[in-house]
UniProtKB/TrEMBL annotation:
It comes from Aquamicrobium soli. This is ABC transporter ATP-binding protein. Pfam families: ABC_tran (PF00005). Gene3D superfamilies: P-loop containing nucleotide triphosphate hydrolases. GO terms for molecular function: ATP binding.
Amino acid sequence: MLKVSGLSVAYGPIQAVRDVSFEVRQGELVSLLGSNGAGKSTTLRAVSGLIRASSGSVTIEGRNLLALAPSARVSCGIAHVPEGRRVFASMSVFENLALGGYTVPGLAMEETLGAVFDLFPLLRERRNQTSGTLSGGEQQMLAIGRALMSRPKLLIMDEPTMGLSPKMVDVILAKIDDIRRQGTTILMVEQNAMDAIRMSSRVYVMRTGGIVFEGAGDALTPDIIKALYLG
Ligand code: ATP
């Protein structure tokens, strides 16, 4: 479904991602792993258009994305849940969700909203609450719900459990599993490597801007992981 070939991204003189190629097939949950600064977030941002690639190609179902603005990529079926959640704190839960749906015209908003509320009943209860007063885990549910409002084919998630309590980490990861089971393809960066490996169809490990391992998670023993992370 998603094909990334020879992707390179630079921040001025800093080459953050170099010649990265990977794919995500229909129905898969694929994780990008690796230590801080490896280029994982930059890769996700280049796919969803939040940052410009210097070379390479990104296609979804054969359609080239790199020339498109982020909003047009949403229309192609890509939704990005950013690192740090970034919900609109002064707006209500409902208003945040409505914003997630408006970029794709013609969606049955009420029906999609119902599906998001079924996945996250807490958001239904809190639909009129100001989003900034939600806990971190609840804000993460909202950020995921907002992304689902565009009915993405590919859901991109950057560190969805960052800063959450161990209990809430389990809740969020279980929801991500549910979303995949319901048929949404997922590309994720997750710092809990063992959890990510357990949940993923396949993983890619990045180091200093490149991919150093690709395969099924069960090929990654703790020793191999340590070696890949530490170099
Ligand atoms: P982390 O888990 O710390 O977010 P990451 O694997 O997602 O790590 P990136 O955030 O993609 O890594 O960063 C890749 C490289 O690009 C790093 O060297 C980082 O310092 C650099 N970088 C990231 N964002 C910027 C920016 N806005 N301006 C300049 N350099 C940046």
